[in-house]
Amino acid sequence: xxxxxxxxxxxxxxIIAVFLIVSAAAFGQSKFKFGVTAGVDLYENAWGTxxxxxxxxxxxxxxxxxxxxxxILYLNLFDSGGYSGFLKLPIxxxxxxxxxxxxxxxxxxxxxLGFELEDFDxxxxxxxxxxxxxxxxxxxxxxxxxxxxxxxxGHYSQTIFGLAVFF
Length: 167
Known about the structure:
This protein is mainly beta and 167 residues long. Helix content is 12%, strand content 66%. The protein contains one helix and eight strands. It has an eight-stranded antiparallel beta barrel with strand order 1-2-3-4-5-6-7-8. A hairpin with a 2-residue loop joins β7 (140-151) and β8 (154-166). The longest helix is centred in the first third of the chain and has 20 residues, at 7-26. The chain starts with 6 loop residues before the first helix and ends with a strand.
């Protein structure tokens, strides 16, 4: 049985997802938008940490409802020992369900890769995430998500409250 939580498999899944997004864009059947995103992170683990994230998001819409996005985030975690910095690359597939004029409920799922900036022994990690949220006027997205990250020696979960603004 394939262990999808293995770092090597997460890396391959991420490369395949990026390839699919780029391939779909090349056919011209999709719309691309770019934006900024930021949020608050709550970590459920032995550290009991909180933090923030900020970064850039690119989203490719295949039809009115199906999309894929890639985000590059800087995460800063606060705990009793100070702070830690991470770079994170989530790649999600999503669906938009229109509920009113210019308002849609969104759901996303996909893998992420992480790169710790301070701990050179445990530099890379990977995981899986889910998001639910609301798109307003195709420019604003408010979301809540849950990420499960697997590191050497264990795992942790992260609840994310965020806002994205598209240009």
